[in-house]
Design brief:
single chain; mainly alpha; Growth Hormone, Chain: A; 2 domains; 77% helix; 0% strand; globular; MFS; MFS transporter; transmembrane; cell membrane
């Protein structure tokens, strides 16, 4: 078996996404700053942010069948090029003096929509690029990529915005183009293949059901429902998605809660706290490349939730931002292991021709 580091297709996909993920974090940081700098209100900034996240709720379910029936390479390329065009329109409108909040909201929506399609297509294509035995390691590298971009991107976005309002968006648009070029070096056929369900890991339920490919003539809504039905039949996956939905609710709110708790200490200490928090996630992503080999899916799903249950009450008694950051870092450390094991488990168990629909169903719920 070729080592993962010598897998040229994975290296091209991963390397392009390192650049693209960093650019997205830079542009995402600069977007609310641009809204405020051009006369918009905090409410306007919130509307633009909501426009960017709306596709993750409304587009995931219909995107799944499209990812399963179309050429995933085409979806990946089209998503990066469309996102580059949407982001590039921002500095162009800024230079022409025609930039509006509505324009920014549309650009954010298109960027979010492209992110939905790219994310589903990338996850569905990964089992075709990487052997099953190397999937956890590949997903751990993807986690490290995302966590590293989240750590470096925001401060870099702020610095670039200070250099010029258009600069972060130019960098973001170029990063999408770099990713699109990198995709041209992926030679593997990424179209969905009609396969039977793989044998589950030892921790999987014994009554998993194989799934068939949905005919292309089926209505889109019926194809999307097939992913929901298949997911519902899997007890462990069903329970994991429920836990993931609850944990997302908690941790999406946690950062805001931490900022509120630490606001009296000043911006510097708040920044230190969030930096420590993010560093914990990056360290966890790097550690997940080894930890996943020693733990079953069931142990991770149960164990990580117990770790979070033990750590979360400590926020109530933390005395300063550094302590808040360290507790947050411990919570963030185990998160990548949870993501890696769940995604690797799904990639092995779910038939590839159904993987886009199952992932879209899960992501819509979570």
């Amino acid at each position: 078996m070729i080592p993962l580091r010598r897998n040229r297709d994975f290296a091209a996909l991963w390397g392009g996404q390192v650049v693209s993920a960093l650019g997205a974090q830079i542009g995402g940081t600069a977007m609310p700053l641009l809204v405020l700098a051009t006369g918009g209100s905090p409410a306007d900034a919130g509307l633009v942010a909501a426009a960017g996240t709306l596709p993750f709720l409304v587009a995931n379910l219909p995107a799944g069948p499209l990812v399963d029936c179309a050429d995933r390479r085409t979806i990946l390329l089209a998503s990066e090029l469309a996102a580059a065009a949407a982001v590039a329109s921002v500095p162009i409108a800024l230079w022409w003096g025609t930039l509006t909040v509505a324009h920014l909201a549309v650009a954010a929506f298109v960027q979010g929509l492209c992110s939905v399609f790219f994310g589903l297509a990338e996850r569905a294509a990964l089992p075709l690029i990487v052997p099953a035995a190397q999937l956890p390691a590949a997903m751990a590298q993807n986690e490290a990529r995302a966590r590293g971009a989240a750590l470096i991107g925001p401060p870099l976005g702020g610095l670039l915005f200070a250099a010029g309002r258009a600069v972060p968006f130019l960098v973001d648009a170029i990063s999408y183009l770099v990713s699109a070029v990198a995709l041209l070096f992926v030679r593997r056929d990424l179209r969905a293949r009609a396969t039977t369900a793989a044998q589950p890991p030892p921790s999987a339920p014994a009554d998993h059901l194989p799934a068939r490919a949905t005919p292309a003539t089926e209505p889109l809504w019926r194809e999307a429902l097939e992913g929901l039905r298949w997911t519902w039949r899997q007890p462990l996956i069903r329970a994991a998605i429920g836990l993931l939905a609850v944990s997302n609710l908690v941790f999406q709110a946690l950062v805001l809660i931490l900022i509120v708790l630490a606001h009296d200490r000043g911006a510097t200490e708040v920044g230190l706290m969030l930096g420590v928090y993010s560093a914990g996630g990056l360290a966890g992503a790097l550690a997940a490349t080894r930890l996943h080999r020693h733990l079953s899916a069931r142990q991770v799903i149960v164990g990580v939730n117990w770790v979070w249950a033990a750590l979360l009450p400590l926020f109530a008694v933390a005395a300063n931002p550094l302590q808040l950051g360290l507790i947050g870092a411990a919570c963030a450390f185990v998160g990548p292991l949870w993501n890696v094991v769940l995604m690797a488990y799904a990639a092995v168990l779910v038939p590839n021709q159904l993987l886009g629909r199952v992932l879209s169903a899960a992501m819509t719920v979570t």
